[in-house]
Design a protein that fits this description.
Length: about 375
């Protein structure tokens, strides 16, 4: 066995198979790789194929010490265009029933690879906390495991107390880049004035009715502000949606609709002045780090909690009513972009951006916390 295989720590990372979860864990994987770890990143076969489709078949080649592996998801293949969001309820059920065996087989394969001196022995597993089968697999293979929550700390603690709140009657009970990026948006953004554009993206899982889509559409049009709107496959219930020629004519000189985009780059473009978002934690932190105030339309999971902090605690955003109406959308967009409240929110989000930059720089608390995790958890046996 070579010296590299003997000494290099090897982390196996397992995200929940949804875009936001993959993005968050992939960033952690990159940070660990920079700190000298050999990385095995485990996607489902479905998402791996989507990644290759969007990025090209050679997109995952050439990463020394950073390998991608796949396991099946146990679901029936989707008919027609596979570039859509999988049904989350079916996916969660399959995770519980079908993921343990193929993941155990993958760990066994990695063990054989280490014996042959091809890769370092697996030293730890980093798993999304929504992939509970990894705990049993770690126990069976005598490996330490770290559970990763892609939500905010507040959202995580709220989730821990859901059962208590439900039992006390304090929460009412209620009845889901993997897409090819459309880079033409940057040419369009270059033609816009600084801080003039509203960026609209409801994430990778949020769905809405055709009626809700129309209310947002005409709210954006009636605001008279330039906008970049991401309408991904699967966003609208019932399939694709075609806008009327009246709407297209109305927005032709100030609106661009695309299927997907590199969000962090868009948010950091100087023409972006506001973000209409579903309040997923990735989108929330990316908006803060770009210094962009938000309009919030939360959907589920940690999004309502994130929205409350954005609007009420940090005062860097405003919430749109669940029963969305075009008049409210247009009014809030104008307040966000040119109103006095919007100016105050922009000032506050710039203050948070500065804090985020300080915390993630060498010596900052986030930087130090990651170093502490690496040394005390991952490298404890070295």
């Amino acid at each position: 066995m070579g010296n590299l295989a003997e000494t290099k720590p090897h982390a196996v990372l397992v995200p929940f198979p949804a875009q936001g979860h993959i993005n968050a864990l992939l960033k952690l994987a990159k940070l660990l790789h920079l700190r000298g770890f050999h990385i095995t990143f485990v996607n489902t076969e479905y998402n791996h194929k989507r990644l290759l489709k969007s990025r090209g078949h050679n997109s995952l080649d050439g990463f020394i010490g950073f390998n991608f592996e796949t396991i099946p998801d146990g679901l029936t293949p989707l008919e027609g265009n596979g570039d859509v969001t999988q049904n989350e309820a079916s996916l969660r059920q399959s995770i519980r029933k079908n993921f343990l065996r193929p993941f155990g087989e993958l760990l066994a394969k990695l063990h054989d690879s280490a014996i042959a001196g091809v890769t370092p022995p697996v030293t730890c597993i980093v798993s999304d906390c929504f992939m509970p089968f990894t705990i049993q697999a770690a126990e069976e293979h005598a490996l330490p495991i770290l559970l990763f929550s892609p939500a905010s700390a507040t959202g995580f603690y709220v989730a821990l107390h859901f059962r208590t709140l439900l039992d006390k009657g304090l929460i009412p009970l209620k009845g889901s880049n993997l897409w090819k990026e459309d880079t033409k948006c940057f040419d369009w953004l270059e033609s816009q004035q600084p801080r003039s554009v509203v960026y609209v993206n409801f994430g990778s899982i949020t769905i809405m009715t055709p009626e809700q889509l129309l209310e947002f559409a005409w709210g954006l049009a009636n605001s008279m502000k330039p906008f970049l709107w991401i309408i991904r496959p699967g966003l609208v219930i019932g399939g694709s949606f075609i806008f009327s020629s009246k709407f297209e004519n109305e927005i032709s000189d100030r609106g661009l609709i695309a299927s997907w985009c590199p969000q962090e780059q868009v948010l950091n473009h100087p023409s972006i002045g506001g973000f209409l978002t579903h309040c997923g934690w990735n989108s929330t932190t990316e908006s803060i780090c770009a210094g962009v105030p938000m309009l919030c339309w939360p959907f589920f999971a940690d999004q309502p909690t994130n929205c409350r902090y954005i609007c009420n605690e940090w005062e860097i955003g405003m919430e749109i009513n669940t029963n969305v109406k075009r008049e409210e959308v247009a009014k809030l967009i104008n307040e966000l972009m040119v109103g006095e409240k919007g100016k105050k929110m922009r000032q506050k989000v710039m203050e948070l951006k500065k804090k985020a930059e300080e915390n993630t720089s060498p010596g900052g608390c986030s930087y130090m916390n990651l170093d502490k995790v690496v040394k005390e958890v991952f490298l404890k046996q070295y």
